[in-house]
Amino acid sequence: MNSMPPLERGYRRLVACYPRSFRKENEEEIIAVLLATAFPGQQRPGIAESFDLLRGAARMRMGLTRAPHSVVTAVRLMCLGAVGQSLTLITVLVTWGSMRSAAAHHYPQYTAQVSRIVNDDVRGDAALLPVLVVIWLLVAWGNGRGNQWARVAAIAFAVLYTLVLCAELSQGVATVAPAALIMSGVTWALGVAAVVFILQPRSWPYYAIQPAISRQGAAL
Amino acid sequence: MILTALADGSQHGYGIIGDVAAISAGRIRLRAGTLYAALDRLRADGLVAVDREEVVDNRLRRYYRLTSEGTARLAAEAARLQANASAAFARLNPAPNPILFGSLPGVVL
Q1: Cβ contact (<8 Å) for B31 and A59?
Q2: Torsions phi, psi for B3 (to 5 deg)
């Protein structure tokens, strides 16, 4: 590898991101095409072709190259949901002080108690929300591969999220943490939209061939 | 576009990239990541198959060809696009209606 020209070494590093079974069959051919399409004198992979290879590898690892458009859209929405969940966490942490002030303003006679409750809630969110980000990504990965469990998990997750959001609204969270609630609402909408896509009739056949995809996945 | 590139005969990856660029008059420039993701899907769908492999300058060159299913799919898609294009041209350049214009004396076309 050390005796390789830097351009080929760079390409091989990028192609290494693809699943092993795909690389075994296609690596040498892809490298040959990449080298043939390189500019004269090119020393390193370009930004656009690096992005293209990394995106291709990510799509292949998620199983998206063979998924129908409805499932691809659902998986993208779930990935956006993970981003939304991360932004919710950041919003909670950034607005921590204002949440305490708002709670104290609404319950002036219980300032110490509400401050403690808000602190406990924020600490709970700081522990829970990263877990939810992982769940979003896990469910997105499973759906991309056409796993039935992931589809059921996505539906269950959306239902649970709806119930939690309704409970938060009924408890007056909107007055104490409006920014975090808006972010949660956006994240919820992404989850519900993803479920709508995976329940579309054109998505069903993809989940029906789940055992074949799983066998392929096991070889990765 | 990949199916169109293969309609003329088997092609290797680099050939497909060049052919797609030529067919699209340079508008579409396929990159390797996009090409091989698409080929993976087309092979899984049974539209494209590996024709043969060669080693040129110590590099593997794999040729792809359309399957009969791929040929049928390309023909169906081309017919659909042709019908759409015909409808568009017909609406952009409507033939003058001789009965209508004949009944309107004085209309300057």
Answers
A1: no
A2: -65, -40
CB contact set of A25 (below 8 Å; sequence gap of 6+): none
Contact B17/A at CB under 8 A: yes
Q: What angle do CA A172, A174, A179 make, to 5 degrees?
A: 150
pTM: 0.65
**Domains in chain B with CATH codes:** 2-93 (1.10.10.10)
pLDDT in tens, A102-128: 777 777 777 778 778 888 888 888 888
Model confidence pLDDT, tens digit, residues A139-167: 998 998 888 899 999 999 999 989 988 98
Per-residue CA distances from A102 to A119, A169, A174, B9 (Å): 13, 16, 11, 71
* Nearest CB to A60; choose among B32, B40, B45: B40
**Cβ contact (<8 Å) for B60 and A55?**
no
